[in-house]
Amino acid sequence: MIDHIGLTVTNLENSKAFFSQALEPLGIGLLMEVDGWVGYGAEGKPEFWFGQQDLGQRPMHISFGASSRAQVDAFYQAALAAGGQDNGAPGIREHYHPSYYSAFVIGPDGHNIEAVCHEAE
Length: 121
Hints:
Blueprint: E1 5-9, H1 12-23, E2 29-34, E3 37-42, E4 45-52, E5 61-65, H2 69-81, E6 85-86, E7 91-92, E8 101-106, E9 112-117
Parallel strand pairs: 1-4, 5-9
Antiparallel strand pairs: 2-3, 3-4, 6-8, 7-8, 8-9
Helix pairs in contact: 1-2
């Protein structure tokens, strides 16, 4: 349904460092830089973009898909190591559905970043 998404950050280099480390376990990396914007994605298609503005943007919730629970766990550890703040350790969130396994961290600009695997164990 959504081809790509873009948001603003207050410090481009800090955000690049955070997202490069946090998203690497999910197979997502920096693919492109254009006119002050950076694009992250997998398999050559940048789908997650951000650029710098003085005011940044109100915090958003952004969820990245994971192919396994181990990827969710690795994302969580990498995001914390990159300076993210815990906002929900890896685990089942049955109120969404019985196999919803996710983890949440708060990124550099207050965005709630999630990795989720929908597969049963």
